[in-house]
Amino acid sequence: MHIYATKKVMQAFKKAEKMTSGTIENMTILEESDSPEEQALFEWHINSVKVNQEDLLIVTHDLSGLTLLIVNADTEDLLDFYEWFEEALYDLLGKLGFSHKSIQQYLTYSKGRQLTLGKATDFKKIGRNSSAVSLLRQLDYYQENEYMVQSYWQYQTSRLNRSLKQASQPFTQFINEYEKVIGPVSFNVNMAEIEVRLKMGDLPDVIRVIQMPMQLTFEDLHRVIQKVFMWQDAHLHQFIMEDGATVISAEQKRSMERYQMESQAEASAASQLKLADVITPEENGIFTYVYDFGDSWEHRIRVRRFYSENRRMFPKLSLMSGEPVPENVGGPPGYADFLEVINDPTHDEHSVIKEWANDYFTRLNLFNDVNNFNHDLTVMHS
């Protein structure tokens, strides 16, 4: 494995090397810029940047644009850089469903568990690394700084980093090159079939059954629920687990901590918590997702079954019952009133409510379809 480093990062590694009076474990620092690797599959670029007051090492794969993030890596931490690199890679490829064996094959196929570090001189590839930095800065908010590997953001940045305008998405590009050089990727994806039931009071519940990879996060599950219920992600949300624990967005958690709201500060950040960390056959098989604390849309989530797949998997909607409801309608009681007015052309408020709901009905007619939802879910995670 070879990593091209900017001048700043190269100097930091050399400083760390002096601290050891020898060489950094699993790493050889080269004076020349050329890679000793024979395959571009094993070449990366690294830079050190500051994003939202956090010092980051950003490592990008030259061919695909996959991105690894390591936070607050000071000189002493660089002595264990291989461990951080390996942890970040396991986290990212694990979210794609790579088996432990396939990840280990990638790490050892070229030079064993060894990294070489050389000077970055290719401006085109340096630009790919810079584009990952730009993507990271464009994301809505940043995560808690106690996480050395920023799982969610390296996943999202990797998914979007197409600075060389390759035909394939970054994940697909990496998998294709892997299979060309090493052989077929073996996948091991733990799955859960979950029923999400929007409780509607006296009206029939709105139900969606989703196949969900367990290596994805609660933030991913939030986005999937938003998609298949046609919510617009315009309000706060939280998960309330069977054991009483709460899971909220990282942005919300950070705001609550800022205003010293202790109960919310103790909640977990959705983007840093994988489903498999919390949901098991023994625990949290039933929990709640609440969206919009004003209208209080309560979704009861029940795990129907656990199973595994040996292929790459995406979230998938397998069953839908009932139509999505409009935002800001006043919860289940407000929706009941909405239906009464919209279904009665003689009602005094019919024309006003119909105009107010025009966007909702347009989206309902265009997008409320299983195939459309599944196309969007695949795009979101490919």
UniProtKB/TrEMBL annotation:
<dbReference type="InterPro" id="IPR024047">
    <property type="entry name" value="MM3350-like_sf"/>
</dbReference>
<dbReference type="InterPro" id="IPR012912">
    <property type="entry name" value="Plasmid_pRiA4b_Orf3-like"/>
</dbReference>
<feature type="domain" description="Plasmid pRiA4b Orf3-like">
    <location>
        <begin position="192"/>
        <end position="361"/>
    </location>
</feature>
<dbReference type="Pfam" id="PF07929">
    <property type="entry name" value="PRiA4_ORF3"/>
</dbReference>
<dbReference type="Pfam" id="PF22016">
    <property type="entry name" value="DUF6933"/>
</dbReference>
<protein>
    <submittedName>
        <fullName>PRiA4b ORF-3-like protein</fullName>
    </submittedName>
</protein>
<feature type="domain" description="DUF6933">
    <location>
        <begin position="3"/>
        <end position="165"/>
    </location>
</feature>
<dbReference type="InterPro" id="IPR053864">
    <property type="entry name" value="DUF6933"/>
</dbReference>
